Amino acid sequence: MVSPPFSVVWDSALRRHLSWRQPLRILDVGCGNHSPTIVKLHFPYSHYTGLDKDPDYNLDAQDRARMDRFIQMDLLSPVWEALDPEGYDVILFRHVIEHIPNGEEVLAGLWRFLRPGGYIYVETPSERSLSLPSMPGTLNFFDDPTHVRIYTLPELCNLFLQLGGRVRGAG
After folding, report:
1. Cβ contact 125:72 at 8 Å
2. 63-116, pLDDT tens digit by residue?
3. Is the N end or the C end of the chain the one with fewer CB atoms within 10 Å?
């Protein structure tokens, strides 16, 4: 089974379940790869906070203009006081957890800032990527030298349950 693209997840889950909350407060952890522009296209009236250890990683002037706030933070030693104490309706954690050895600790820290009824969206390489051939585009987990840990789907689901959440979809 192939996971649906991020935009499909937005349309099928977040829009349906959070459309009454306007403006949405979104925290995007690992906001590089032009994520501010993509997220603001889906939720133009959201309050968008980007968080990354590198303020220049795949962000251009358009991305910076779309952010309401940027937090520079290294997740190896997170400073949770930098986050908004009002919390967030949506926390995006896409292709970050596999790059840090303290993923469970970071996810638990982020969880404290999730507003009641909010969503955390996690995206990470699946364990199936371990057996893919090595080729350009880092299809195999080990093609990216910055990957430090792979999480199985049951591990992530159990972590959410331990934090007091529920899993709306996984795959």
Report:
1. no
2. 999 999 999 999 999 999 999 999 999 999 999 999 999 999 999 999 999 999
3. N
Q: Are 49 and 70 in contact (CB under 8 A)?
A: yes
d(CA 39, CA 48): 8
Output the pLDDT for position 1.
30
pLDDT digits (tens, 9 = 90+) for 3-26: 445 555 555 666 666 666 678 999
**Is the separation of the CB atoms in 147 and 99 below 8 Å?**
yes
At 156, which amino acid appears?
A: L
Domains of the chain: 28-163 (3.40.50.150)
Residue 136 has φ and ψ, to the nearest 5°, of -55, 145
Q: Can you give the three-state secondary structure of 81-137, one letter per residue?
A: HHCCCCCEEEEEEECCHHHCCCHHHHHHHHHCCEEEEEEEEEECCCHHHHHCCCCCC
d(CA 68, CA 76): 24
Q: How many Å apart are CA 156 and CA 163, to the nearest integer?
A: 11
